[in-house]
Amino acid sequence: MSFPVRWKITGTLTTDSPLHIGDGDTTERDALTKENENGKKEKIDISSVITDYEDRACIPGSTLKGDLRAWLKRRWANGKLDELLGSEDTKKKDAVGGKAEFHYAYIKDVKLTNPPPYWDAVRHTGAAASVAIDRVTRTASAKKLRHYEFVPPGVPFTVTITGSGLDEEEVGILLHALEGFNDPDDPVTLGASTGDGWGRLSWKLGKVRRATGEAVREWIKKENQADFPFAELGEDEIDELKPKAGSPAKPSIEKIVLDVTLTFDSPFLVNDPSRCPEKKDKEQESDETHPDHAPILDRNSRAYLPSRSFRGAFRSQAERILRTLGGDKAACHSDSDPCCRSLNYPEEVDRLCPACRLFGAAGWRSPLEVTDFVQAEEEASGFFQDFLAIDRFTGGGAHGAKFNALSVLEPRLTGKITVDCSRTEPWMRGLLALTLRDLIEGDITFGFGATKGYGASRAEITGDWWKAENPQVSEVVEQFRQKIAELQKEAVHG
């Protein structure tokens, strides 16, 4: 009897940023409630992540396989991928199943010193809110507040990949693919919102084991079959496997990478409601240890500006530029506009407005990637302030309208913006350049209390593309102006 060689690769994937792999369902948190039409409190629906049999967040094998395949397709064109991972088009007559078997990745021991908002110790997840801003009122749009469950940074998952009949070249390809999670320029990412820096993980190889046909035959002869007869490969043997996969053809994706430092000359606050529990006694005075508003903190207890919050404010400024130069219809007002409804095919992208082309829309992933902006210093001084609304009739303090906020005073936050040039036209980079100019000049505010003097900052930007002597910046700005002129002509004749 002939037994094919069986392989087993194990290792650990640890989240470096929030991870959301949805299951299409919703979950709840006791502390997240809203008032319904009858004035009664009800729990808020949160888009949930997929979980295992113990209700813990996990990574499905199909998700891991699919994203690794997409990453590999840009590198290997030797025909091995179908044999290794199976045919992409399963309806073809000659479709084949893949040799590699991807198991569910389960959470290992979790030790978080600073859990995220609305932490669930069973599911190992927190919850985040995302709200759309009305471009006219500059306040939250009605019925546009959404909540997402996510696995926070620092959570490890155990990965297991097995397979029968794999040759050493195919094993080498798998090892290369897993190391793709650590690629600084073009990493493998998982789940939703990867354009906002979500879905980043670090890979650490555990063991590579092999069971030969001879070892299996000897194992079958034994009266007491214990563990399957895998033999662990040494480091030298593993290093010999990787070159057998050949040299991957790394895709030539031209990217613009900009390092951005935001220096605030005011208090800064992105509120974390979970740190501000509702007072049981409405007359109870709040203090610095129990404020009404408190900053959201990362796992290292540093205040930060979430990538989604930066993108939203940055996009709003870009839309102001578009409407100033091109009129009110140069940028859509909502996802209900006919031009910017969800795309079904890539060929439809030309119907999107300029803002949606650059910043993304339903069915169109933004070519801009934005990271979280984190405190550059280990600590920044806290700033506690009381607020009191004024009664418009009496001129005195309005009853029951007193609140306070604990913010961070004049922090420096650092982050990164990456542009995929293969998915942007020159005029889109021109719009980006004008918006970056406004960011540098302090025309964009972030977080809570812009009308109260909070969130004002100026930016410093470094990167080869942004150097003053680079003529490309002036060229793309001019092409953006030409694009605006074309849109105005179309509007007149349309």
Characterization of the model:
By secondary structure, this protein is an alpha+beta fold. The chain is built from 9 helices and 22 strands. The protein has helices spanning 61-73, 80-85, 168-179, 213-221, 235-241, 307-326, 354-359, 426-441, 471-493, and strands at residues 6-15, 22-27, 33-35, 41-43, 46-49, 58-59, 100-102, 105-107, 126-133, 140-150, 156-164, 201-211, 231-232, 255-264, 267-268, 304-305, 368-370, 373-375, 382-390, 397-409, 412-420, 457-462. Strands 1, 6, 7, 8, 11, 12 and 13 form a 7-stranded antiparallel β-sheet that branches. Strands 14, 16, 17, 18, 21 and 22 form a 6-stranded antiparallel β-sheet that branches. A 3-stranded antiparallel β-sheet has the order 15-20-19, with no helix packed on it.
Largest sheet: 7 strands, antiparallel
The proportion of residues in beta strands is 25-35%
User: Residue ranges: pLDDT <50 for 5 or more in a row?
Assistant: none
**Oligomer status:** single chain
Total E-strand runs = 22
Number of helices: 9
State the shape: globular
* Helix-strand category: alpha+beta
Mean pLDDT: 85
Q: How big is the Rg?
A: 26 Å
The proportion of residues forming helix, as a percent range, comes to 10-25%
- Taking the alpha carbons of the first and last residues, their distance comes to 74 Å
